Hints:
By secondary structure, this protein is an alpha/beta fold. The protein contains eight helices and nine strands.
Amino acid sequence: MNSKNTEKEPSIMETQWEDHKLYLYLPRSWDKNREQKYPVVLVQDGDQAYKALSPVISELETLWQKGIGREFIMVMICPVDRLSEYTPWRAPAMSSRFPDFSGEGSQYLESLRNRLLPWLCETYQADIHNSSMLGYSLGGLIGIYALTIQNCWRHVAGICSSFWYSNWSEYLENSSLSKETRSIYLHYGEGEGKGKSGPMKKAKEYAEQTAQFLESKFPGKVTVTKDHGGHHTFADQRFKNGLLWLNKEIGDDPS
Length: 255
């Protein structure tokens, strides 16, 4: 697969995996001739994530030099169709301006586990047993949904996740959850839902409900933060905070 260095951030490569464009960050210590394995973080909405997280790379590298956290590979995945890939089941659109949600999230997650992670392991020395996820909005929803159908995600961060999604609360309450997950991060804005209609109007309430449920199932493993903003407010800072949280959790993980 062809790859090239992006002009804005030399340490991030643009490459292709199947139909998806990827922005791939490899730590400075990475060497294709070494057998060292690295934890891997998969980030949804790769185009948005690239803009938000590229400036954070130098900060991460400084933290690692100080012994804070642990080096990891970061893979920002650009969706082909986020309304399909990031939704767990079919549901009507929230507005006539958009198509219905296709609900192919399970198939997407299977492709990550069964095809992307093995490829990253073989090609870039990613540790297939130390994989984490970060997502915003629907990208956060699909990360938390993954915990109900897969056992391969070590740490998961969901930012302003779309927990207003049709039948989400009922589904979650009746689901079994991953036994392999060691920590979860949830962030939401107290202004989410303002000016919206339908289920989106209660975005804050759904976020609080999901947080309470996960805290009951993963005692001591769930970190919940919030700010006063709406859904899109402080997006870059929120992405950064989620990534820095992941760095800490990966660094504190003994294995």
